[in-house]
Amino acid sequence: MIDPPEHTVAGTPLLETKLYAPKWRPSLVSRPRLIERKLTLISAPARSGKTTLLSEWMAAAQASERPAAWISLDQSDNDPTLF
Fold first, then answer.
1. Residues 6+ apart with CB under 8 A from 9
2. Is there a domain that residue 29 lies in?
3. Are the C-beta atoms of 72 and 18 separated by less than 8 Å?
4. Residue 57: which of 31, 29, 20 has the closest Cα?
């Protein structure tokens, strides 16, 4: 017997990988001024460090025990009936 998926959206299984934030690597350049802000809109071309910045933000949130969550979206998530 196959166990049902733990996470579903409108009856559709949610890939577990969409819920895992990449690990922040302290050896990378830190952006403390962006991490300390209450609200930051991140919009930049591919390979400009958006995911790296967000993984640092997640690490900082977890270290200070602030609630934080991660979800990765892609084109298939563009259906309003599922999102």
1. 82, 83
2. yes
3. yes
4. 31
Q: For the chain, how many structural domains are there in total?
A: 1
Low-confidence ranges of the chain (pLDDT < 50): 1-5
Residue 2 lies in a domain: no
For 81, the token pair is 């009936």
Alpha helices in the chain (DSSP H): 32-35, 50-63
Residues of the domain holding 40: 16-78
Residue 47, in any domain of the structure: yes
Buried b (16+ CB within 10 A) or exposed e, 36-72: eeeeeeeeeeeeeeeebbbbbbbbbeeeeeeeeeeee
User: How high is the pLDDT of residue 24?
Assistant: 84
